[in-house]
Amino acid sequence: GAGVSQSPRYKVAKRGQDVALRCDPISGHVSLFWYQQALGQGPEFLTYFQNEAQLDKSGLPSDRFFAERPEGSVSTLKIQRTQQEDSAVYLCASSNAYPNTEAFFGQGTRLTVV
Amino acid sequence: AQKVTQAQTEISVVEKEDVTLDCVYETRDTTYYLFWYKQPPSGELVFLIRRNSFDEQNEISGRYSWNFQKSTSSFNFTITASQVVDSAVYFCALTSEGSYIPTFGRGTSLIVHP
């Protein structure tokens, strides 16, 4: 596809369940970001990849959060033992250079932990 | 540390009114980049504009215009003759050479009534 694709669009998880969120960036984009967006807030940085290298994971809120991009294209954000406070929209963005170019965002995955 | 402040949480206007969305930023870097994104109800953030710190020229694109003033650390966004389709949440964001991690404001929800 032409844009950034995220799946699933919606995910309901029981507390304690593990979830995996997928991001397909724009083909050829080397930079990939994950953000967490709580209701009524701006996106908060989670982690950044340049190709397959995870250059920054300082925004991951706990060791229950893990992200990977093994072949430098598709990325997966995994959350283990989900908690209610993990409920948010998770946004993925890609760009072909950073920081001086715009990022292209996916529609996000809305995670609800019950 | 970087910071972006969008003091207006929500703005409500009637169609054809002009509206200005405020953005104030803080950074210690001399080279930085400012962005505006639009987030419609569908969820994905749509890039509107990028400005680097060395270019203070105001920009106009159709009904949209941006006023960048380094003296007041502001990068305000004006929509002229607003339309219902402009209803969305608008985010101002900042990156810099010293911190490529993007910082977003909390967003301004614009509601345009017919």
Explain what the structure shows.
The complex is a heterodimer of chains A (114) and B (114). Chain A has 114 residues and is mostly beta strands. In chain A, 0% of the residues lie in helices and 48% in strands. Chain A has strands spanning 5-7, 10-13, 19-24, 31-37, 44-50, 53-56, 65-68, 75-79, 88-95, 104-105, 109-113. In chain A, strands 2, 4, 5, 6, 9, 10 and 11 form a 7-stranded mixed beta sheet that branches. Chain B contains no helices and 12 strands. In chain B, the strands form 3 sheets. In chain B, strands 2, 5, 6, 10, 11 and 12 form a 6-stranded mixed beta sheet that branches. Chain B has a 4-stranded antiparallel beta sheet with strand order 3-9-8-7, with no helix packed on it. In chain B, a hairpin with a 6-residue loop joins strand 10 and strand 11 (103-104). The chains are: A mainly beta (114), B mainly beta (114). Chain A binds chain B through residues 3-4, 33, 40-45, 48, 56, 58-59, 89, 91, 93, 98-108, 110, and chain B through 4, 33, 35, 37, 42-47, 50, 52, 91, 93, 95-97, 100-107.
Strand content of chain B: over 45%
- What is the rounded Rg of chain B? 14 Å
Please report the distance between the alpha carbons of the first and last residues of chain B: 41 Å
Shape estimate of chain B: globular
Per DSSP E runs of 2 or more residues, the count of β-strands of chain B stands at: 12
Multimeric state: heterodimer
Q: Considering DSSP H and I runs of 4 or more, what fraction of the residues of chain B is helical?
A: under 10%
Number of alpha- plus pi-helical segments of chain B:
0
Helical element count of chain A? Answer: 0
Largest beta-sheet details of chain B: 6 strands, mixed
The greatest interface here is: A-B, 28 and 25 residues
Helix/strand-derived class of chain A?
Answer: mainly beta
Low-pLDDT parts of chain A are none
Beta strands of chain A, count = 11
Q: What share of residues of chain A is helical?
A: under 10%
Order of H and E elements of chain B: EEEEEEEEEEEE
Mean pLDDT of chain B: 93
The proportion of strand residues of chain A reads: over 45%
| Major pleated sheet of chain A | 7 strands, mixed
- Please report the distance between the alpha carbons of the first and last residues of chain A: 33 Å
- The class by helix and strand makeup of chain B works out as mainly beta
